[in-house]
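Aggregate trends can hide what the representation actually does to any particular protein. The sequence in question and its structure tokens are set out directly beneath this paragraph.
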Amino acid sequence: MARPSRARGFLAAVVLACAFWPAQAVVNPITAPAWTELGPEQKAILSPLAGDWDQMEFWRRGKWLDIVQRYNSMSAGEQQRMQDRMRAWANLTVEQRKTARAMFQNVQKATPELREALKQLWAEYEALPDEEKQRLKDEAAKKAAAPRLSTERPPATAKPTPKLPPPAPAPAPVQPTATPER
């Protein structure tokens, strides 16, 4: 008799979990259509992503479609910023996107004090003249392009350095013999 009540308890837990699960966390692939299935307004808003749309995971498409729903309630400045960000994102390589996602996740995990410090640094950077920003970008590009000396151990496939036999012991020093005095 314990088994049926245990099964009902499990089933009840699953039903409750599904009922309270955030709707945007579960995106049905049907609600994340291919590019050709988007409406004209959706295509206009998402145009910077047109080339990548059909290769995106369905849940990423769902997130972009959520943004489309909020788009008309945004101010003109916010809409322009969103378009600029989509264009910038579309121009990133796959590796740059991975790096950006990782950095975003790190900032989200940071303490509020650290996030505030990052905001302050960004505001200071934004206040710099364009020439200074360009100089900093050039310096960063040079650092990124410079070869780095590796402090890592050689890979396991490298030939090990042969061990030399220990040195032979030195001969014992010859002690002068003392001659008895007469």
Residues 17-93 form one domain.
